[in-house]
Amino acid sequence: WHWLAPGFPTLENAPSSTTIPVSSLLRQLDADLPAATALTVVVPEQLAGLDGERLHVARAVDWRIVPGRMTEGDAVAADATTRIAVRYTPDSQPAVAYLRAAVAAWNIREPGRYQLDAQPVAKPIGDTQHWLVWLASTLSAQASDWIARGGVALVANHPAPDAAALWRDVGGDVLARKQTVGRGRLLALPGALDPAALPMLLDADFPDRLRVALQGPPAAPTRANADTVRPLQDTFHGTSRAHSADPARPLDPWLALLIAWLFLLERVVATRSRAKAAS
Fold it and tell me: Is residue 70 scored above 50 in pLDDT?
């Protein structure tokens, strides 16, 4: 049985809005095919649509690699601009200077990668913004909705006592917490974004800690060289499936005779035991 990776015939011209879930499709194909069916898979040198988990299948796969690459739709380019919205009240405006310094430090390593949009709280948050820093005393309905729809926000003056710890000081006290809100993430500071409430704001590594917190855990890789992701045959499942596919066979005659003889012997012994007990 031969399988050609989806979209492969027109890899270079494939629409960028679609990513083919290669790993999921191959696992499903392996599960659906009869155990005795051989499988040949033709893939390009550069595969997309992976899910970060090594492929394990129940059969040996003839993994044939040919020149080409699959496009990866919906993926953000490595050099894409990250836009950070900052919304502040007049009394919290001094904190914006620390955020500007952090973004400037980020751009030293990746020039032009990060853009800061600092505005008063009345300014709406655009859908093109990636991160939000909210410096008002209360979170507006528009900001809450933006986070719930998948946004990532650092919110000052938001204790969130039941949320998980994000940052701690040297004494173990929690300085910030994190929680999931709808499809988004909220990083909560119990107090203001200033050195009195958050001493680590003056630390040299604060820009890096802030960036890592906003980025969140790295996503599982979805692209790799085809040679490094050759499917591994799971011999246990392959053997189990092969055995389950065998038709049931009748007992050998001698084994059936032995079982009958043992049953008869047990009955004879039981009958004699009852006779002795009666006498």
Answer: yes
